[in-house]
Amino acid sequence: MLQLHKGQRLEGKWQKNRYRVIHKLGQGALGAVYLVESEEDQKKYAMKVSEDNLSLNREYQLMVRFSKEGMVAEAIEIDDLELDKKRVHFIILEYIAGKNLKTYTENTGIDYLMALKLMRLLIKGTIVFGEKGYILGDLKPENIMIDENKKEIRFIDLGGVVNIGGGIKEFTPLYDQASWGIGERKATEAYLCFSLTMILVQLLIGQKLNPRNHNIQAVNKKIAGTKLSIAYRTFLNHGLKGKYTYLKDFANEVEGLYGHEKKVKQFEKMNCSQKWVDYIFIGSLSFFILTIFLILINQ
């Protein structure tokens, strides 16, 4: 496996730009991603390195195309490297300061309403790809960044993007409906709706799930053991059973559920506030009665 090292200096074969490796950011299906610093402007970038020139070039072209939409990291350049007498390939991407969705939720925690807010943003992004004829085939929290500066969601790995109707080659079993025996491993809106549902499930229950060790019935049982509303649980159950064929219908369900859950939370907040008012009133009344009683017995 190709590995770069902290402090290692690299120079592009064709464009001659130089970079210094700071540390590894992650490992994907196509290759590894490193945080690097440009020796020209001292800015930090993300460098994705791979031996698969065709796939990396394709991802770079997609990054260039969709960075205009503001949903993905900006693609800066593509070039080659000579490492140990072997040619490898890399792309330089905008470095997004923040955490991926998986790390963010693990460190910060998330409630049922915030999970729906994030889902609305994810749906917005996937619709942009769909309008251009693509499906995000390997959609997972690790590939979604929470941009701390711009306060928005950004997609950082387009290696799994597939033309609508095509076969999906890059996938993560947890978010792949075929691994759960629900449907085909094909780039359709139905496939995407399942992936989005499973992401929402992961955000809410935070337990490690694996189609090798669990089935959909077991997942639904875990959902039933939460304090989620009946409407929320029903929506998740339908999504996990592959009942959403079109992203538009899925999006409408999320919007409706978000509106419902928001009203419920507002009502609970008002009810809680009213209880405090009642407690204060009862306490004040009790104090008043006690004061009158003490005055009377002392006369």
TrEMBL record:
Keyword field contains Transferase: yes
Keyword vocabulary terms for this entry: Kinase, Membrane, Transferase, Transmembrane, Transmembrane helix
TM region positions: 276-297
Gene3D superfamilies xrefs: Phosphorylase Kinase, domain 1, Transferase(Phosphotransferase) domain 1
Protein kinase domain sequence ranges: 19-299
Entry protein name: Protein kinase
GO cellular component entries: cytoplasm
Keyword Cell division annotated: no
Listed InterPro entries: Kinase-like_dom_sf, Prot_kinase_dom
Molecular function GO terms recorded: ATP binding; protein serine/threonine kinase activity
Superkingdom of the organism of origin: Bacteria
